[in-house]
Design goal:
This protein is an alpha+beta fold. Helices cover 47% and strands 13% of the residues. The N and C termini lie far apart (80 Å).
């Protein structure tokens, strides 16, 4: 009986080889990662020294603010002046410049680009289950995994200091991040590709990973998050006016405007914007979105680093007034990592954000989409749901003892994001099983926390000397 090869020969053997050449095994990739320790020893990651010609962090913020809505820049400055932790949250560009000169292995992932402990939380999956993960992707871009992890451990130290924790607690939190990242990356290295892709940090897994005290805090956070579905948000963000739901204004943070900053009527601009957004949605989402109609729109100030970018809240209604859909329009600029990587450029920065989020978030929003606006600047944007069962930790003194537990969750979520987009076996091989990288990154975290406090002091001085304008209220 004639035997047939599993796959017949192709007229283009190179094309066939692209899909049939065996991939290196997990053990081979681990070994390759381990070998990188000879080129970049773990101890080298401990070093942080400001470059002799380090850019003035205040000058970087001022330059970044030139493309933002000028009447909102003082609010951004005020929010960053709240604490060194707030400063770190708003200064991804400054830290990206500092990280660019630190050692890397050459292993790349879809980096978040703005990794810090306040950039995590709970949100709803498409099945309406609560999951934990990264929740902001404005700076995402292909880059070294080390940059995300270093920014995250530094933020843990800055946050614990802000919350009133001592040096021991700062170190425990930083080490918890790295230890969890190492442990989870080893697990993902041994899993099948689809198993990694479908992995999520669900409610049961999250609670099982926490100590009893931290579990109580998490349960309270998730309880509040369940109350933040669209119907509940409607009662907080909108009110009935002439029998029609309208977004409640809270100037200067939520304002209804008739024209954009460059004079276009809001109605005309939003119609064109939505048309471009819809064209980016998958066909099944287009069908769902077509069942909603726009009711109201208002400009909204959000976050710390994002303040001054063009951001809007859109209220849409479905079958009735109590069938709302809240969407958030956010302007998307180039990633803070862009000047320091060789990542491909995007025709639309909003698409960069959406593709990055879909790649590394455990349960990406079903309404993620993007486009380029009509206005004179041709603003790039993306759209997502607003406050859909979202919840997060409050960074205050009452939660400071739980920060090592929280750091453990953050390290886990970051490992999952990097495993989805990079080579978990190679990264795991480099990380190893010892605590040598934990030691190094804890030292780095303290050194960079000190740098953050110096930069915060520089911003405070700039405010006192009127080099920057500061709003009286930024709540």
């Amino acid at each position: 009986m004639k035997q047939h090869a599993p796959i017949e020969k192709s007229a283009d053997p190179k094309l066939l080889a692209r899909y049939t050449t065996p991939m290196p095994s997990v053990e081979e990739r681990k070994a390759a990662g381990k070998a990188l320790r000879d080129q970049v020893p773990h101890a080298e990651h401990a070093i942080y020294k400001a470059a002799p010609k380090r850019a003035d962090p205040v000058a970087l913020l001022i330059e970044q603010s030139k493309t933002r809505l000028q009447n909102l820049v003082p609010i951004r400055n005020a929010r960053m002046l709240a604490s060194p932790f707030a400063f770190l949250r708003g200064s991804a560009a400054a830290m990206a410049a500092d990280l660019a000169s630190t050692p890397v292995t050459g292993l790349t992932v879809q980096a978040n680009g703005d990794m810090h402990v306040a950039n995590f939380g709970t949100f709803a999956s498409a099945e309406r289950n609560l999951v934990f993960g990264i929740n902001d992707f404005d700076e995402t871009q292909t880059g070294p995994w080390e940059w995300d992890l270093k920014r995250l451990v530094a933020s843990a130290v800055v946050a614990v200091r802000f919350m009133g924790g001592d040096k021991v607690l700062c170190e425990d939190a930083a080490r918890a991040v790295v230890r969890s990242y190492r442990k989870r990356m080893r697990e993902y290295a041994e899993m099948g590709n689809l198993d990694v892709w479908y992995s999520r940090i669900d409610e049961a897994s999250l609670l099982a990973a926490l100590s009893p005290d931290a579990r109580k805090i998490a349960e309270k956070i998730m309880g509040k998050a369940r109350e933040r579905g669209h119907t509940q948000v409607l009662g907080k963000m909108a009110e009935l006016v002439d029998n029609q739901q309208r977004i409640v204004e809270a100037a200067p943070l939520i304002v209804r405007e008739t024209h954009t900053h460059d004079g276009h009527p809001i109605g005309e601009e939003i119609a064109i914007t939505l048309d471009r957004y819809v064209s980016s949605l998958p066909d099944d989402r287009k069908t769902l979105f077509a069942r909603y109609r726009l009711v109201d729109v208002a400009r909204k100030v959000v976050g710390v680093g994002s303040v001054g970018t063009r951001c809007w809240v859109l209220l849409l209604s479905g079958n009735s007034g109590d069938d709302p859909l809240f969407l958030q329009y956010k302007e998307a600029g180039a990633s803070a990592l862009a000047p320091y990587t060789k990542a491909p450029t995007w025709a639309c920065e909003g698409q960069r954000v959406v593709v990055g989020q879909r790649l590394i978030q455990g349960a990406p929003d079903i309404f993620l989409g993007w486009g380029i606006q009509k206005n004179s600047a041709g603003s790039h944007f993306y759209i997502r749901q607003l406050r859909d069962m979202k919840g997060g930790v409050e960074f205050d003194a009452k939660n400071v003892r739980s920060m090592p537990d929280y750091g453990k969750l953050c390290g886990w979520a970051l490992a999952l994001a990097h495993a989805k987009s990079g080579d978990p076996a190679a990264i795991a091989g480099y990380l190893g099983k010892s605590e040598s990288l934990d030691d190094a990154l804890a030292r780095f975290a303290f050194a960079y926390a000190d740098q953050t406090e110096r930069d915060f002091d520089a911003l405070s001085k700039a405010a006192k000397t009127k080099r920057i304008a500061v709003a009286q209220s930024a709540a």
